[in-house]
Amino acid sequence: MLRFYFLSIAYLLSVLSWGQRVFLNPFATFESELSGITVINFSTDDHLIAGGSKGTIKVWNITERSVVAQKSLKNSVVYADFIDDNNKILVLLKSGDINIYDRSLATKTNSLTTASNPIAASLDPNEHYLTIYGKNEELEIFDLKANMLFGKIDASKKFKKLKFLGFD
User: Can you give the pTM of this predicted structure?
Assistant: First the structure.
């Protein structure tokens, strides 16, 4: 049984800025039978959590502390995030498939495939571009609005063992 501990970000920052006396109290506790969780992401309104593992994606309601959607998948989840005002969920699988589901995970509304075997991914704040770093040591940038590959960048000489990718 795996447990998630979530802290109020404002509380955490106030405690950390206070000094060396750091006491982390969980804001909420969630239990899940998911094993090997590979991704967790919050909705922009902080009411939902998307979590992925080896072959499963789940959506939890933080307020009700309950699972609101679950879907079995053929591959491990590399990246998952809420998009379109939290009405859809973007899911990147280890196979390279980029799928967009409605929030209930019942209907796939869009699908793309990347050439790389993804290691890390990041969605820009405007939810327009998904950047993926794969085992082929290339950055692939997907335009989600146009539903196509926007460009590739050879990153073989720039990154060594990249594990995280993000926007500033």
Answer: 0.78
The three-state secondary structure class of 18 is helix
What separation in angstroms does the CA of 1 have from each of 37, 62, 111, 157? 11, 18, 32, 41
- Residue type (1 letter), 152: K
Strand locations in the chain (E):
2-6, 28-32, 39-42, 48-52, 54-61, 66-83, 88-93, 97-102, 108-113, 118-123, 129-134, 138-143, 148-154
> What's the one-letter identity of residue 116?
S
- Model confidence at 27, pLDDT cuts 50, 70, 90, reads low
Q: State the maximum Cα–Cα separation within the chain, in Å, rounded to a whole number.
A: 49
Percent of the chain with pLDDT over 70: 78
Exposed/middle/buried for 132, CB within 10 Å: 0-12, 13-18, 19+? Answer: buried
